[in-house]
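Hi,

I'm pasting everything inline rather than attaching a file, because the server keeps stripping attachments. The sequence lines come first, and each chain or strand is labelled.
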Amino acid sequence: MIPAEYYLVLAALMFFIGVFGFFTRRNLLAVLISTELILNAIDINFAVFNAYYYPEHLEGFFFTMFAIGIAAAETAVAIAIILNVYRNMGTIRLKNLKKLKF
Amino acid sequence: MILNTHAIIFMGLALLMVIAALLAVTTRNIMRATVYLLFVLFGTAGLYFILHYTFLGAVQVTVYAGGIIVLFVFAALLIGKGARDLTHTSILRYTAGFTAAATGLALTTYLIFTHQFPDVKPLTSVVPINLIGHTLMGSDKYNYVLPFEAVSVLLLACMIGALLIARKR
Amino acid sequence: MNILNLFILIPIVMLLALWASRNLRQIRSVMVVGSTMLLALSVYLTIDFISQRNAGTDTPFLYTDSMTWYEPLNICYSIGVDGISVAMILLSAIIVFTGTFASWRLQPLTKEFFLWFVLLSLGVFGFFISLDMFTMFMFYETALIPMYLLIGVWGSGRKEYSAMKLTLMLMGGSAFLLMGILGIYFGSGATTMHIQEIAEMANIPTQVQYIFFPITFLGFGVLGALFPFHTWSPDGHASAPTSVSMLHAGVLMKLGGYGCFRIAMYLLPQAAEDLSWIFIILTTISVVYGALSAISQTDLKYINAYSSVSHCGLVLFALLMMTRTSCTGAILQMLSHGLMTALFFALIGMIYGRTHTRDIRELSGLMKIMPFLSVGYIIAGLANLGLPGFSGFIAEMTIFVGSFEQPDLFHRTVTIIACTSIVITAVYILRVVGKILYGTIKNEHHLALTDATWDERFTVICLIICVAGLGIAPMWVSDLINGGVSNIFTILHP
Amino acid sequence: MEFTISILALPLISFLILALAGMKLPHKVAGGIGTASLAIVAILSYVTAIQYFGAGRGADGLFPTITPYNVTWLPLGETLHIDMGIMLDPISVMMLIVISTVSLMVHIYSFGYMKGEKGFQRYYAFLSLFTFSMLGLVVATNIFQMYVFWELVGVSSYLLIGFYYTKKEAIAASKKAFIVTRFADLFFLVGILFYGYYAGTFSFTPDVRLLASAGIVIPVALGLMFIGGAGKSAMFPLHIWLPDAMEGPTPVSALIHAATMVVAGVYLVARMFPIFIEYAPEVLHTIAYIGAFTALYAAVVACAQTDIKRVLAFSTISQIAFMMVALGVCTSADPHEGGLGYMASMFHLFTHAMFKGLLFLGAGAIIHAVHSNERSFMGGLRKYMPVTHITFLIACLAIAGIPPFSGFFSKDEILTACYSYSPIMGVFMSGVAALTAFYMFRLYYMIFWGKSYYETELKKYQKGEIAEKPHAPHEAPWTMTTPLILLALVSCIAGFIPFGKFISSNGHAYEIHLNAAVAISSITLAVAGILTAAFIYRKDSNRVILSVKVQSKKFIIAAYHRFYMDELWLFVTKRIIFKGISRPIAWFDKHIIDGFMDLLATASQAFSYSIRRFQSGNIQSYCIWFLHGVIILALILIFLV
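And the predicted assembly:
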């Protein structure tokens, strides 16, 4: 039996790797990829807590499932936006996207 | 901890996931990043299998690895050269991001190891699929038909929205 | 229903009607009907008030009414009037009425202009009828905000700058004011923000009074153009459109003096007594300094704005002298200055509308081209320099006689210094009259200009009648005000 | 005496009619309204005088002070209030006569003088306003009412001086007149305020105990009031406005700047005389010295002027100064014991109003004829304008103090009063009186004798040197000569009025008796003055005058420039007040005070710009800061709390 802490540490690692990527990437797609990492880390946590501490319930399970579903939706919209941005501005580099800035 | 099959698989998956995640956020090529992400997602699915959440693992593989990654790949291909432009950020931002992430990680790890969790009551068997089905479609307490419907509407909205946004004018 | 509520309701109805009106004709009729109703109502209020007083009712405020608004903070919609507020309401109604006619031909965005204009007057009326400090403050803010748009959109010259400056400075003042109000409220431990109640409890500790009197006085003083916070006035007035200048100088600046008296001095009597010397010095400077600055200005509106600084300085000066007579004089001066400045700004607006310049070096010989406006201007000028028979004289004399009731050297000296303003006023008024009205016509284009139209004549004549009426028969106003002042003095000097 | 209210009301009504409807009325109607109302006022004034003096003295030997009207106009505090009313006592009744008479004459005269002028109606409106204010001033029941009308008088004077509003000099003169008098009024006002506070009333008869306990303040208040009076009555150094005021139409000069308004200061001192003599005799004597200096100064300056109206203006200043001196030399309220000056002053006021009005109206007729104020355009006019000549001569004789003309009697009383105060003062004033005779006859000879400008021009024309035929001077129309004749008659007989019977310092009857020594010496001096003037100016280019002129050239030029008093005042106003104070203050306001406010705005803007980088719009940096913040908070919560 693997202790729950291991999972949690792994999830934390992935979370902060995602955060790090979110901070440092300069490309919308890459930022989105980092976001997916973060989401995944959270999903793992939900599943782990459910499976280890409250096996008689399924809250974490379903939360993860819905999170996956919503992540898919979110990604679809995000990528649509990114494509649109690219089409209109010719770039998806964050630095160049200033049109909405005051 | 006894070094059993589960443990070995877990270690392998963990190693794979961490390395793939690191590469995903550092590589300069967006296609590669996507592929590394795919590895991470598969790894996650593996973790779900180890946790006896096989259905969840399946969902992870189909939706994430199957759906989202495809989206990423298409996006990367559509954008093409623009997507490859992965210049690195300023050293200041880099350090700031790194410190924040590292501190956060340290803090979280510290909390994980110091926090008193409740007793472990591990799952011994795979969650039966009919239970999942009943829970998902039931309308009692701890049943999820309402969120399920909400998510379905959301997905529909997303679909239309994505179409509208990406539509050529 | 309480008659005072009508002063809020009529503007609201006017706002709705304006919003619904479709063309210029409808807008004008709404404005004329509404402002006439307000004027009639205020006249009725005055008459009724006087007759009630004569009948012997001696409660401090008449037509009182109260309605809780927000329980947790004890904010009430408390209304009521005494002699001072009746006089101020009458003044406001006259200015709103004449202001309507002064902006008869205003273009463009006429509807929007009048919407803001009415909102402003709503704030003014609300301020004068309320007795609850918070409600008062709310109406005060209601009156300030439209100013920004009225100047910023319909103004002339550096209008954005002026509008911004005016609003920011006045907002700064109201920040002080809010502090002061809260200080008074919590210092007194009262259960409501009702002025009368706080005044009668009279239990604000002296130390607290010392802190909040300057803050409150300053807050209102900014609006009353107290030196050195008067600089919004010249720029603001110079940029504002005619009727807004009228309303602003005529009524809005009076909110400052009224508030100083009603809140700062009435509720913090001990501090007012002890700290008045600071503000007396400042106001004395205002009086002389404003007049001296006016001498060397070249823009007609600047001259008048500085003259307003001087005259409004006299209002605060007289209040701080803290004798019954001087305070009566201060209120009279508010009335008189309101009418005179409104007249002045109306005339300047009319002249500017024709010549397109306000620079006195470019104007001359207007008497030949527009005799009506010129005569009006001379009358306004003479009223302004305190000619007997006009309101300025009685106000100034009441102030000076009242100020002389303080026999110590300091008060005497500053009074005499303030008196010199009547000479300086004469200098700048006559300078302008001599330069722009008399003499020969320098600019050929001016020969084609016309004299006042009927609406302009109406505005000017109305205001002149008011100024002269107040100056010839001051008795009743003086009595009216004196009643209110006496009530306040029962607290100020028990 | 209730009808006296119409004395005030009629001019006011006429003013209102003319001011509101005037421009639409034909000239004749407008003038007619003004003149008719004034005629009624004059008749009413005479009736008032006859009734008042006819009613005789009361049991205490005084003419009673009647107050037919007195209403509270404006209450000020608990004790003080401004009243408006009518008070009749000997001097106010006397002033009523003076004002209504001269005003009526001027109204009639103006028909001819102002004929065809643009703004004829406006002129009559202003005249009515002035008359109203002046009448209101003299019948004032209290000092504040006096001040009210005092200001109104000032403004009507302003309007009338600036009547020719397109003329630059007229605008400047009107402005100057108003501001100088206003400046003086400031002192008057402060004086009133002091008086009101310490006497507890504005009335002329205050509570004696209060006054006695006030101490030094009452003399100060009276002194300040005198400064106000000095402004209106053109005492040195506040006289500068009066010569310039001659820019107004000549009849206005006659009415306002010779006969009525300028004596308001004298009237004021006379009004306050009981208080002056009781509580502030020193102030009174100071007034005498100021008056004496002014008299001399104005007389000297008058000798050097070439503009005939200016000469008359300075002569007015000098004569008013005589009245002031007469009031100032009083040492007690009893006319037998040094209070003679009061009666003399009032007497001189009366006679002076008549003959100075006459002089100005005569000068107007001359100006009307030759179209210039300068003496070089005159000369030899006696042939062309006989009526004007004779009446002018009468007036000159009157002012020079030749019996039996009125000026002799009043001036003689003044000199007697001066001698009884101190011989030096007497001698000094006699000298000034001689100077008066000199400059008046200098004027007379310059106008009516000597080489005629017209004839010279005519000769030139006949020789063909100039193309245009000069206009022959002509006698004025009857509307103008009638007032001249009437006033001349008054000047002839006014001296025989037993003035002391009506007016004296303590109210009791006083028999005027000529002091033989004074009379003879003053006549001698006057004749000497006249003869000198005749000797010098009757013929042109006299050798003596030339040598005198050359020797005292500088002095004459200085006198011509009025000893540079105007320049001094101009320096004070233009250089010091305007350039030295007002401009810097305006600059200070714009740049320092407003600059400070702007600085606040700019500073906060600069500050906000400096922190604006945080709001970069870059979601990544927001998140970095956010995460840092979260971590710090978490650390605090975990380890510190």
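The helical segments of chain B are 5-26, 30-50, 54-79, 81-84, 91-114, 129-137, 145-166.

If the labels don't parse on your end, tell me and I'll reformat.
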